[in-house]
From TrEMBL:
It comes from the Eukaryota. Residues 210-219 have a biased composition (Basic and acidic residues). This is Mutator-like transposase domain-containing protein. Residues 197-227 are annotated as: Disordered. Residues 2-148 form the Mutator-like transposase domain. Pfam families: Mutator.
Length: 227
């Protein structure tokens, strides 16, 4: 497909073209549109009304893009306030503050909360709010009001523990939240270490194979009768 027009309208025009020719080319209708948060493309597709009034198109949001935006906003907030002292006399970033590691964790928890509650808006809201309280909890602030955890914000390792507490209708204290967080981080750290080790072993094996192949070629090139 050749596009004529501005680069900004290329995606929207392409989407309209694909929807408008789906019946002719593939004998099917696209009833769902997976977006990345940009409403322009979907609006153009919707306004073009490719299938008439008999078939409506539903817009779905890509959780990965929504999750990514959380990290983008937090990094921008950190960059905009670089060097500024907060009420406690410390900067926003740094060790024990809003570090890159903390931003990655919040982003992951945010995505987990959305995915685990995709059909439960109120549950999604509570799970997302729980991220704030989970990060805010500390020994000096161990009240059940401010220290809570929601099972859906964790990865597989600690999720079962949090779910058990929810099933028993028990309050997740600050100590429990820290335990789950520590267990969760340990599991993900081990997974990263295993992946790094496997990658290193693969690269070493590849280098060994290349070296052995090179040595065999050299032996063959200078063997008796080779000339």
């Amino acid at each position: 497909m050749t596009h004529s027009g501005s680069s900004g309208s290329m995606e929207a025009d392409g989407a309209v073209e694909m929807f408008s020719r789906s019946v002719q080319n593939h004998k099917l209708r696209y009833t769902r549109y997976i977006g990345d948060g940009d409403t322009n493309s979907f609006k153009k597709v919707h306004d073009s009304n490719p299938y008439g009034t008999s078939c409506s198109i539903e817009k779905l949001e890509c959780v990965g893009h929504v999750q990514k935006r959380m990290g983008t906003r937090l990094r921008k907030l950190k960059a905009d306030n670089r060097g500024k002292k907060l009420a406690d006399g410390k900067t926003l970033g740094g060790k024990g503050r809003l570090s890159d590691v903390q931003i990655d964790q919040i982003t992951t928890y945010y995505g987990n909360a959305i995915r685990a509650n995709k059909h439960n808006l109120e549950g999604m809201r509570k799970a997302i709010c729980a991220i704030y309280f989970h990060k805010k909890s500390c020994d000096k602030d161990a009240s059940s009001k401010n220290c809570c955890c929601h099972s859906s914000i964790y990865n597989d390792g600690a999720q079962a523990y949090a779910q058990m507490l929810e099933q028993l209708d028990l309050v997740c204290s600050a100590h429990t939240a820290r335990f789950l967080k520590k267990k969760d981080l340990a599991r993900t750290a081990n997974a990263r270490q295993r992946a790094a080790k496997a990658s290193l072993e693969y690269r070493r094996a590849k280098r060994r194979a290349a070296k052995e192949s090179s040595e065999r070629n050299e032996d063959g090139a200078y063997s008796t009768g080779a000339f």
